[in-house]
Structure formats: structure tokens, C-alpha cells
Amino acid sequence: MLPRLNGSFKTSSLFLLAAILLFVWGPAGGHAEQTVMEVIPLKHRTAEEVIPILQPFIKEGGAISGMQNKVIISTTPSNLAEIKKILNSIDGELRRLMVTVKQDESREESGEELEISGRAAIDDIAGATVGGSGGDRGLTVENKRGEESVRVHAFGVQSPEEDNVIQQVQVLEGNSAFIRSGLSVPLTAYATERYINGRRVIESPEYRDVITGFYVLPRVSGDRVTLDISTHRDRLVDIRTGSANVQQIETCVSGRLGEWMEIGGLLHQVFGKRSGILHGAGKDIRDRRRVLIRVDELK
Q1: Which helix (H) or strand (E) covers residue 147, if one does?
Q2: Are residues 66 and 104 in the same domain?
Q3: For the chain, N or C: smaller number of CB within 10 Å?
Q4: Could you list the residue range(s) of the whole structural domain that residue 219 is in?
């Protein structure tokens, strides 16, 4: 006859049995996956490009490294399979792009002037004369009657100027490109050296770079492109002093492939007017600058 078990002994026996079963069956059912390591060659991208993308998908305890066109992954077999799927989607053939930047500058100066001149008799012994600059431009209307004459002269001027620069550079998506052109203007710098008995002026050559160019980093998704762009344009004003007008834009824009995008501009307008009793003149100056960019895919 078996001895009777009390309640506490029964409870302790049940916990012991559960521990034994967990020890026996646990390794077979819940053992962690074995870690494997594989070296994967890249087809189109570099390790420096893909590692930051893949790193967040590596499971805890895994590692990824690489150099140039190979990545080394150490992780579980199931995680490795997931990483390979992601890598296949991003290691596709890079698209060739043509980036075109157009920097337009236009200046339009217009003016008009009206003046009246002539001579009119007041009585038999007195008269009055109104002078004027005259000129051959514009329209002149004159009316004479004996010694009396009235002359009305009106003219207008319009002088448009355009200066457009177009630059192009080829680049693979995800890579940066830089292009610039220009000239170095020779200048003379002066310095004064003082002595006990006087001073001497020393001349030394210097150069001022006048350049036009841009830096661009394109990223393509479908038919849209996102650009980190920086443009620079100098325009020489006085070759003797090397003074120049400088225009620079740095921004990030997004648009469709094959479409012009205006990334910046400037409109400067000056209007002046003067008038007198027999004379009037007006002047309007418009200075407009625009920077446009377009990205085309090369097949």
C-alpha cells in the first residue's frame, strides 16, 4: 500500500515535474537559431551605400560590415534571407542622369522725354525764346509763323540686354557632381613700406576668380527626382578693379524628370522721374535673374 501524499508534497512534485519537462523539451522546441556568416558581392552599389540601409534590419546579435563591392553579414539564416531580399531590391542598375542648369540674367532699360522750345513775339519790340536740347531721336513737331515758332520734341529709348549661361553634367543617381567654368582676373595689389628716410610702394600681382558653376546630388524614385543643389555665378563689373556681381543659391527641390524647375530668382526695379515747366523725363530699369534646373534620364 502506497503512502498517502499530503497537499504540500503534491504541489512540490508538480513544480518539479514541470521543471523536468521544460529542461527535456525546451532545447528541442525553443533553441535559438544558429548564427551564420556570408560574404555577398554587390553588382552596382558600394558597401558604403548599402550598409546604412541594411543596418536597421540586422537582428540583435548580428553584424554587418564590408568594403568596396562586398558586404559581410553575420546573423541567423532566416534574418539573412530577409536581408538578401532587401539587398536585391536596392542593388539594381543605377540610372544615368543629365543635369542641366540654366542661369538667366536680363536687363531692360527704358525711358522717355518730352520738351518744348521755340520763340514767340510779345509785342512789336519784345519777344521770348525757350531753349531745348533737341536731337534727332524720337518725334519732332514744329510750327512756324513768321518769326514765331513752337517746337515739340519727344523720344523714348529701350535697351534690352540678355546674358544666359547653360551648363550640363552627367551623373549616376545617388552620386554627386560638380562643374564650373570661369576666369582669373589679374590685379595689382599695393602695399607701403616705411623707412626712416621715407617710404616705398610695393606692387604685387593678385588674381580674382570669376566663376560660374553648380554642385548637385540627385536621388530618383520612379519619375520624380529630389535634388540637393548649390549654384554660383559671378559677373565681372570692372576688369581694372576685379569687382564682380555675385549670385549664389543653395537649396533642396523635388520635381518630375524632364521638367524645368525654377529654384530661385531676383527682380530688381528702379524707376525715376523728373519734370519741369517745359520739360519732362522718366526712366525705368529692370534687372531680372533666374536659376532653373532640369534632370533627364539617359537611356
Answers
A1: none
A2: no
A3: N
A4: 96-109+158-298
d(CA 153, CA 114): 6
- Residue from 279, 288, 287, 286 nearest 112 by CA: 279
The count of structural domains within the chain is 2
pLDDT in tens, 30-54: 456 788 999 999 988 889 889 999 9
Q: Rounded to 5 degrees, what are φ and ψ at 104?
A: -100, 140
**Do residues 103 and 233 both lie within one domain?**
yes
What is the pTM for the complete model shown?
Answer: 0.56
CB 70 within 8 A of CB 40: yes
- The tens digit of pLDDT for each residue in 63-121 reads 999 988 899 999 999 999 999 999 998 888 888 999 999 988 777 766 666 666 655 55
- CA torsion sign for 133, 139, 141, 147 is positive
Give the C-alpha separation, 31 to 254, whole Å: 49
